[in-house]
């Protein structure tokens, strides 16, 4: 699968997805979240777990959980279990397997192709976007949310101890004098970032759902922001493109930018550096996020 990856230039708003099937419906996952695709690996059940949690398996000597996406989404698998595929994914500093009916191919897409008009309504909370390709609708899921629903214990990683957060922000004085812009497509992660910043006393926070909205707000002469936090994988304009545009703008280039993403492999880190990001943090490290915000504000 790795050999099929298509090289995309950094900051051009292009990325790649692996398309897979659950019954007749097509779904997608970002290539940067995907490590490999395997035939059925077998599974050992885990007692008292979520119904979509099939159990655990061993891949190259490493034990990983297996989540059946068909069960989670209420689909009936169309093939025998032994004929199904396992997408080994890695994000938020964890590795796990998504069990699907079949894996199709890799598509190169542009962020403009992501349609979010039905997200949170008719598509429900698990689908972020529709990708329209070759006469069909491909759903891009909110994998961070799915994993936290299957294993609620993981959500604790996204919360900051209020005492720790307040200790961290002492050096900058009143946190509310700083205006922070957050660009994040997942409603769940937007709320978690807002809550974490709030624990540190940062309440002057504006949230937008994609990079283009963030760039529009930064270019609004009526407002001045002191720091930008951005995801990478977003519609209309991705986070790397947003960062590049900020750093190329004469009036914005001094604005500190934190890339806060679930996918922080070495190649992604190099890309973030190449477009001028001031800091890079993996999403579970929410405590480091507050600390980094303070550090960059002091430097500025």
Mind telling me which CATH architecture of the largest domain this is? Beta Barrel
Run of helices and strands? EEEEEHEEEEEEHHEHEHEHEHEH
CATH topology tier name of the largest domain: OB fold (Dihydrolipoamide Acetyltransferase, E2P)
CA-atom Rg in angstroms: 20 Å
The N- to C-terminal Cα distance equals 43 Å
Strand element count? 16
> What average pLDDT do the residues reach?
87
Helix content: 10-25%
Q: Which residue ranges are poorly predicted, with pLDDT under 50 across at least 5 consecutive positions?
A: 1-8
Kindly name the structural category.
alpha/beta
Number of domains: 2
Trace the largest sheet across and list its strands.
8-1-2-11-10-9
Number of H/I helices: 8
Broad shape: globular
Largest sheet: 6 strands, mixed
Percentage of β-strand residues: 25-35%
CATH superfamily of the largest domain: CheA-289, Domain 4
Task: Please identify the top-level CATH class of the largest domain.
Answer: Mainly Beta
